[in-house]
Design goal:
mainly alpha; globular; 75% helix; 8 helices; single chain
Length: 179
């Protein structure tokens, strides 16, 4: 099973890298990838934390909790699994090494983007903003593969981790609110 996932990962990233690379997309995805960075995530949360509305401040707290828990999970997994990045194992890959640490699995940028996006979407349910948050998180995931710094399975698992913690924190928040 792991062999099949690895083969699929390599086929997808090489296809994207060899068939969909354009200078304009390079610049676009370099910009988009920073939406999953630590600096953006912390700035996003701090911006909401300093606003005077208590609902917004509680959102910032829950977003921070989801981000911290998902970040810890990613750190533990990266240092346990120690998967090499695509540009280290695929010689023919042309990579733009933007925002990378030592290991590939799972994607920390994607985890952070989905953690914030799902938390935001759950707060703004039914609002068009919910869709925008989720589309931006998906673009962060695509950017990581496009730039050649993550395999598709890295970003899929990162999205699942970030989304799961956001949903878990939302459920806990709802339970606390009812009690």
């Amino acid at each position: 099973m792991i062999g099949k996932i690895k083969a699929w990962d390599e086929r997808v990233i090489l296809y994207i890298n060899q068939n969909l690379k354009y200078k304009g997309l390079d610049y676009f995805f370099i910009a988009v990838t920073y939406l999953g960075s630590d600096v953006f995530a912390i700035g996003f949360i701090l911006a909401f934390a300093i606003l005077p509305v208590s609902t917004v401040q509680s959102f910032a707290l829950y977003a921070a909790l989801a981000l911290i828990l998902s970040g810890l999970t990613v750190g533990i997994m990266k240092n346990s699994i120690r998967r090499k990045r695509p540009f280290e194992t695929l010689i023919e890959l042309k990579s733009l090494r933007i925002g990378v640490d030592q290991f590939s699995f799972p994607s920390g940028h994607t985890t952070a983007a989905f953690s914030l996006a799902v938390t935001s979407a759950l707060v703004t349910q039914g609002n068009i903003a919910s869709s925008v948050y989720l589309i931006l998180a998906l673009l962060v995931a695509v950017s990581r593969v496009y730039l050649g710094v993550h395999y598709p399975s890295d970003v899929i698992v990162g999205g699942i981790i970030g989304s799961s913690y956001a949903v878990l924190i939302h459920i806990i928040r709802e339970v606390i609110t009812v009690v």
